[in-house]
């Protein structure tokens, strides 16, 4: 006696595996990507042999080697524009933390007046960003 087996049902194409792969790629790039704004110019912070972890939150002031300024990745025309931008940020955030990310070759005559102006506007928490490592 010969039995006829039913023909197998055609497999429907599924994209579930593809969706999983795309999801994992999305999560991977979100984890390794930078979430903070970067300066529109190159900034290499100074090297320091001591320091602590950088606190989260607040605003980032970037100072280039030639004295260029940017606040949270947005270029600023000068100290006056910085004062206006900080005043706008201090309204809703009176406890604003300011991270100063100055290039290691930036002169102090460019950096210190900015810190003083920020403190005069009401910024009470100023953090200088450094790169950990042995000082050459």
TrEMBL record:
Which Gene Ontology terms of cellular component type are present? Answer: plasma membrane
Biological processes, Gene Ontology terms:
protein transport
Compartments it resides in: Cell membrane
Q: Which domain of life is it from?
A: Bacteria
Q: Which GO terms describe its molecular function?
A: transmembrane transporter activity
Query: Keywords, A to Z?
Result: Cell membrane, Membrane, Protein transport, Transmembrane, Transmembrane helix, Transport
Q: Which Pfam families match?
A: ExbD
- Protein transport: is it a keyword of this entry? yes
Q: Show the InterPro entries listed in the entry.
A: ExbD
Q: What's the protein's topology in the membrane?
A: Single-pass membrane protein; Single-pass type II membrane protein
Membrane-traversing stretches: 15-32
Concerning PANTHER family, the annotation shows: BIOPOLYMER TRANSPORT PROTEIN EXBD-RELATED, EXBD MEMBRANE COMPONENT OF PMF-DRIVEN MACROMOLECULE IMPORT SYSTEM
Query: What does the sequence similarity comment in the record state about its family?
Result: Belongs to the ExbD/TolR family.
Name of the protein in its database record: Biopolymer transporter ExbD
The organism's taxonomy opens as:
Bacteria, Pseudomonadati, Pseudomonadota, Alphaproteobacteria, Rhodobacterales
């Amino acid at each position: 006696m010969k039995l006829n087996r039913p023909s197998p049902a055609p497999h429907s194409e599924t994209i579930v595996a593809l969706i999983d792969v795309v999801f994992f790629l999305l999560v991977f790039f979100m984890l390794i990507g930078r979430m903070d704004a970067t300066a529109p110019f190159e900034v290499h912070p100074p090297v320091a042999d001591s320091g602590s972890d950088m606190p989260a939150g607040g605003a980032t002031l970037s100072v280039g080697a030639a004295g260029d300024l940017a606040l949270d990745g947005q270029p600023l025309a000068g100290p006056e524009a910085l004062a206006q931008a900080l005043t706008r940020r201090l309204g809703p955030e009176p406890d604003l933390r300011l991270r100063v990310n100055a290039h290691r070759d930036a002169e102090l005559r460019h950096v210190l007046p900015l810190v003083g102006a920020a403190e005069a506007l009401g910024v009470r928490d100023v953090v200088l960003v450094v790169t950990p490592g042995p000082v050459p």
